[in-house]
Each structure stands twice: as structure tokens, then as C-alpha cells.
Amino acid sequence: MNKKKILILGASGFVGNAIYKELCSYFDTYGTYFTNRSFSSNQQFFRYDLQEDDVFQILEKVHPDVIISSLRGDFSAQIQAHQHIMEYLMRSKAKLYFISSANVFDAYSKFPSYEYDKTLSESVYGRLKIKIENMMMRMPSEKTGILRIPMVFGNASPRIREIKTSLEQHEPIEVFPNLIINVTNDDKLTQQIHYLINRNKTGIYHLGSSDLIQHEEFIKEVIKRMGNYHPVFKRVYTTNEDRYLAALPKYNKLPKNLLISCQEVIDHHIPV
Ligand SMILES: NC(=O)c1ccc[n+]([C@@H]2O[C@H](COP(=O)([O-])OP(=O)(O)OC[C@H]3O[C@@H](n4cnc5c(N)ncnc54)[C@H](OP(=O)(O)O)[C@@H]3O)[C@@H](O)[C@H]2O)c1
Fold first, then answer.
1. Whose C-alpha lies nearest to ligand 1, atom 42?
2. What is the CATH number of the domain that holds 11?
3. CA geometry: angle 124, 128, 133, nearest 5 deg
4. pLDDT tens, 27-36?
5. CB 136 within 8 A of CB 144
């Protein structure tokens, strides 16, 4: 059997590792880690430091058919690494899926955003994502997939762990009452990515829930699911009007069984 070779950059992280676990039984899957030494004895993993190492070396070693970029780290080093990945794409048969973010639209606040809306961000994080997306858009279209994702939840997610710690220590939990978002969880997100790889899909995908919810309401519902807590909230108002941070699909839709709603993301959290 001729299995596809997959390389996940940032496979020791929350999102990257969830993708690794979803794919490793079906594909010849490799990953990178940086500080998380628990992967150091795993033959499928390579140590990679954005600021010190050239990503070429790993690409030449693995010869992946599919590269998934799920990294954090120094912004200019991320840009340089992705420039090198683009060069590699041009001289190989590989494709790149880039984990981008709904933050590429964080300057547009009055409506949710769709795949081909113009990106504009007020944050350095959003601008970094836009810069890498723009590099990808200059590549032949069959080479790249831009996956814009909202906040990712799940029982093991850093966001939920942070909430648990605040609950246990009776610290206030920040909520944004006039922020309207969509959300997702690690399980659905990784199934969606698996589908895109199987079908050789490229282009822009908005991989969040199909519906919207207020940030405050969502966090309150998740906490209710987590158990009998008495949370203290700190309400943060960034504007007077409702503001949207949501990337919804319109053109590149996934099959029904791969869609998720905010309620399903809430229900996914088991009591702790
Ligand atoms: N989590 C979300 O809700 C969310 C939402 C939208 C978009 N995203 C995007 O998804 C991607 C992954 O996010 P995440 O939440 O999974 O982050 P994460 O858990 O912090 O994982 C980041 C990954 O990058 C690696 N890394 C960090 N600094 C590095 C460096 N200098 N050189 C090489 N590798 C380095 C980490 O390695 P070590 O852990 O081994 O050090 C880890 O594998 C990011 O691009 C993020 O923008 C995430």
C-alpha cells in the first residue's frame, strides 16, 4: 500500500498533536517538537527550533506529500520558515495546509467573515497569519490549503485547562459580553482535516461551528457542563456594539457529518 507521507510542524502542540493522533493510523505520519522532550525518543518525531534550524533539513529527510503547519513561536522566524516551505513546494509534489485563524478578520467587526472576504487585522498575530496566507496565495492553487480556525476547545485544551485552574483557585474568568464568535473542538477539527487530506482538497476553508454564540454565554455554558462551580466573571467590554470574530463557510463547504454546532462543542465537555 502506498501511504501518503505527512509532516506536522508543531506536532507536540495542542492542535498539532490532535492532528497527529487522528492521522497516524492511516498515513506515514511524522512530526516536530521544540521544547516538549516527551517526544524525543519517538522515531516519528524530529526536534525543530524555528529560530535555529532550517526547515529544509527536515523536509529533505522526510520528503512529505503533505505538510501541516501548526506552529507558534517568533514571528519573523515563522515567516522565514514558511518562505522556505514555499520554495520546497515549488520543487516537490508536496502540498501545504496552514493552520490560520479567524483573527485574519479581527479588524472587521460588524459581520461574520467568509472565505473570499478581504482579510484585515488589527493584531500582530492576525497580521502574521495574513502575511503567511498571502505568500500561499501566490503559489499554484493545487499546492496550498488555508485552514482558518476559531478558538479550539476540548477537555485537554489549554483554554479549558486555564478555566479549570481559575475555577479551582476562585480567580475571575474573563468573558467578552459583546463578542460574537464561532468555536470548534479538537475532535471535529482533526476529522475535517483528515477529510481534506483524503480528498486532496486545496483552497480556503473556514473550519468552525456553523452557528454563532456570544463569548460570555459560551463560556458560561461550558462551565455549567464542567460541574457545580461558582465562577466569578470579569466582563471585558472592548466596544459598545456587538463585534464579530467569526469565520463561516459559504463557498467551500464540508459534508453534513463533518459540521459542528456551538451546542455540540459545549456538550463535548465532560464534568471534571
Ligand atoms: N488553539 C487554538 O485555539 C487556536 C485557534 C486558532 C489558530 N490556532 C493556530 O494553531 C496553531 C497551533 O496552536 P496550538 O494552540 O496548538 O499551540 P501550542 O499548543 O502552543 O503548540 C505550538 C507548537 O509549536 C511549537 N513551537 C513553539 N515555538 C517553537 C519554535 N521556536 N520552534 C519550533 N517549534 C515551536 C511547539 O513545540 P513545543 O511545545 O515542543 O515547544 C508546539 O509544537 C498555531 O499556528 C495557532 O495560531 C490555534
1. 13
2. 3.40.50.720
3. 145
4. 999 999 999 9
5. yes
Provide residues with CB under 6 Å of ligand 1. 10, 12-16, 33-36, 48-51, 70-74, 99, 101, 149, 151-152
SS3 assignment, position 229: coil
Residues 215 and 114 in one domain: no
Residue range(s) defining the domain that contains residue 11: 5-151+184-206
C-alpha of residue 203 to centroid of ligand 1, in Å:
22
Output the CA 13–ligand 1 centroid distance in Å.
Answer: 5
Beta carbons within 8 Å of 16's beta carbon, 6+ residues apart = 8, 9, 10, 31, 68, 70, 71
Q: Is residue 176 part of a domain?
A: yes
Same domain? For 110 and 235 the reply is: no
Measured in Å, residue 70 CA sits from the centre of ligand 1 at 6
Whole-number Å distance, alpha carbon 193 to ligand 1 midpoint, is 17
pLDDT in tens, 197-212: 999 999 999 999 999 9
The pLDDT of residue 48 is: 98
The reply to whether the predicted model has a pTM over 0.85 is yes
